[in-house]
Design a protein that fits this description.
By secondary structure, the chain is of the alpha/beta class. The protein has helices at residues 21-34, 41-54, 110-124, 127-135, 139-146; strands at residues 12-16, 58-60, 63-64, 67-70, 77-87, 97-106. Helix 1 packs antiparallel against helix 2 (41-54).
Amino acid sequence: MEIQAIVSLDRTECAVQCNSKKRILEIISNIAAKNNDNIDETTVLTSLLNRERMGSTGIGNGIALPHGRLAGLESVIAIIVTSNPAINFDALDNQPVDIFFALLVPEEQTEGHLQTLATVAGKLSDKETVKAIRRATNSDDIIAALS
């Protein structure tokens, strides 16, 4: 799976002002819903919050991979948000997070979900990619960094 297949400019936001874990998940849910008629904002938020209750999706190095499964979704979509400043997200390394790469996957795609997470995590383990995302001043820059 190529990351370019699941990202888009209309689901990417740069330097969002935010100060809490819940608020960033609300922003992600809003972005997902406003750009897809098949997605309900409340349903997305509930799915993301339920996943966070099982354990933080903050993987370290200022990066979080919030994710959730949604009934009725036809394909995997990504929502990418950077925040300024970084926020407390209960990450594994206890460092604040400023890069959020959220994934929404069809409810029945368990195996595909894990493969997509692994692909994204691999891409975000590249230090140059992460530096480019942090230097981004707009959504185009973020998408270019992931290409």
